[in-house]
């Protein structure tokens, strides 16, 4: 599934479940899907939907801590963890605004036997200006095991990034680029530093694998087509000896 276009994950996943219904639960739990946006009617702010803030058919907002549609006895973090969740949402809201210059972010935390876990979600969709569409979806799942001393903790971070771009121009037509990567790391470090480092590493890998290779292929095709279209150019005497010429390819129109 990670080799298929991220913007078509939902359709491909649905088709696969129709073909093999017995794998429904395994597929839904193991395949990351693009994040969806909902609006908190209480505070008027957007938040992201995922399995980690879902209870039945309802989703909990990190801003008001309310489920929509409302349900009774929905899963809630402890008072201590809820306070940390509020602070984390405010921190990553500023990080997203400064680093991505827009988009939506959400942080959800839940209690574990020996610590807690959480998920940091970030979504940034292109506005379609300059005939370029695209979307960035990042999902960071953090597991924190607190040590008995209470002074240190063990962090395990699993990050998934789904990125796609689509350009539509008269000269070049339509081009789709996209990919998905998942990485895991364990550290004794601050969570926001972990997420930032991981996003930078994944961004670099995506750029090298998908965009870098595509650029090499396009350049290969470009110069391959021009291999027989060359001109002789007489260089100025101050640069070359007499009778020296340069062989230059014609530029693309």
Describe the structure.
This is F-actin-capping protein subunit beta. It is found in: Cytoplasm, Cytoskeleton. One of its GO terms (biological process) is barbed-end actin filament capping. InterPro entries: CapZ_alpha/beta, CapZ_alpha/beta_2, CAPZB, CAPZB_N, F-actin_capping_bsu_CS. This protein is of the alpha+beta class and 253 residues long. The protein has one domain: Aspartate Aminotransferase, domain 1 (Alpha-Beta Complex). Helices cover 29% and strands 37% of the residues. It is built from 4 helices and 12 strands. The strands form 4 sheets. The protein has a 5-stranded antiparallel sheet with strand order 6-7-8-9-10. Strands 3-4-5 form a 3-stranded antiparallel sheet, with no helix packed on it. Strands 1-2 form a two-stranded antiparallel sheet. Strand 9 and strand 10 form a beta hairpin. The longest helix is centred in the C-terminal third of the chain and has 35 residues. It is globular, with a radius of gyration of 25 Å. 19% of the residues are buried. The C terminus is likely disordered.
Task: Note the main attributes of this structure.
disordered C terminus; 29% helix; alpha+beta; globular; 4 helices; 5-stranded antiparallel sheet; Aspartate Aminotransferase, domain 1; 253 residues; 3-stranded antiparallel sheet; F-actin-capping protein subunit beta
Topology summary:
Layout: H1 9-19, H2 24-30, E1 36-40, E2 45-49, E3 54-55, E4 58-60, E5 67-68, H3 79-99, E6 104-112, E7 115-125, E8 132-146, E9 153-169, E10 173-187, H4 191-225, E11 230-234, E12 245-249
Antiparallel strand pairs: 1-2, 3-4, 4-5, 6-7, 7-8, 8-9, 9-10, 11-12
Subcellular location: Cytoplasm, Cytoskeleton
Main location: cytoplasm
Family: Belongs to the F-actin-capping protein beta subunit family.
């Amino acid at each position: 599934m990670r080799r298929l276009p991220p913007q078509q994950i939902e359709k491909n996943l649905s088709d696969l479940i129709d073909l093999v219904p017995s794998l429904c639960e395994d597929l839904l739990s193991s395949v990351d899907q693009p994040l969806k946006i909902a609006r908190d009617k209480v505070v008027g702010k957007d938040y992201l939907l995922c399995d980690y803030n879902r209870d039945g058919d309802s989703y909990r907002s990190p801003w008001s801590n309310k489920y929509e549609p409302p349900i009774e006895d929905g899963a809630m973090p402890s008072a201590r963890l809820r306070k940390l969740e509020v602070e984390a949402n405010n921190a990553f809201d500023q990080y997203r605004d400064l680093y991505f210059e827009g988009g939506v972010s959400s942080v959800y935390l839940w209690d574990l036997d020996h610590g807690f876990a959480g998920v940091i979600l970030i979504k940034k969709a292109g506005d379609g200006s300059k005939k370029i569409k695209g979307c960035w979806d990042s999902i960071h799942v953090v597991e924190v095991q607190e040590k008995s001393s209470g002074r240190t903790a063990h962090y395990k971070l699993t990050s998934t990034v789904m990125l796609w771009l689509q350009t539509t121009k008269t000269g070049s037509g339509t081009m789709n680029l996209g990919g998905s990567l998942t990485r895991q790391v364990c550290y004794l470090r601050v969570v926001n530093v972990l997420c930032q480092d991981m996003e930078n590493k994944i961004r670099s890998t995506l750029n090298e694998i998908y965009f870098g290779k595509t650029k090499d292929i396009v350049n290969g095709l470009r110069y391959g087509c021009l291999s027989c279209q060359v001109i002789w150019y007489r260089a100025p005497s101050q640069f070359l000896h007499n009778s020296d010429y340069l062989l230059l390819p014609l530029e693309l129109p």
